[in-house]
Target: phosphoglycolate phosphatase
Amino acid sequence: MPAYSALIFDLDGTLIDSAPDIAAALNAGFARNGWPELDPTYVERFIGNGPHRLIRDILDDKGIAHDEAAVARAFDGYLRAYLDDPAGRTRFFDHVREDLGALHAAGVRLGICTNKNHAVTGKVLSQLGLDGLFEAAIGADAVPACKPDPGHLRAVAAAMDLTPGTWAYVGDTRVDQATAAAAGVPFYVVPWGGGAEVAVPAGHRLTRLADLLQHGRKASAAE
Model:
């Protein structure tokens, strides 16, 4: 059984249910253009590819005519609203907070690779009391190309000075899976978020994050 001294996680849909806050921020942005209000359950279907893609995918799905200026206006409103209230409606998935603490206590080093805006990511982690658990957390706009580009995931690994073969990536979408595959690292999927739709080999589908304690180990002094 593989033993990992570090684990990198996706954020939205993997550690937290942030769809209500994302939807609220999107609605603030959409209101600038007189576009219709969005339900969090609907928005959740499009989360995972970053905010710019999120806005465009929803506009295309709803058949809303738009130009670049309108998209920029919506994004600016979204970002301002999200930075103002980053996690007021966000909740952890079952046992996530305690399991992250257990992994950290076991000596497993933790990082985050997310397509969420980088500044928003920092605020969300801080508000949820998670910022002290992660050595590195890199959002979509802090790298030249975000997930599924493997450079995004490799940037987190580089920031943590990780050695190839000692770490894995954990997520909930096919985007996360494709990112891990392109980076050449093992991938584990959570049962919530979009995890049920992702096909993985036996042993790579988690029931909760504590399952990863079977794969983690205390990092040695050399690491």
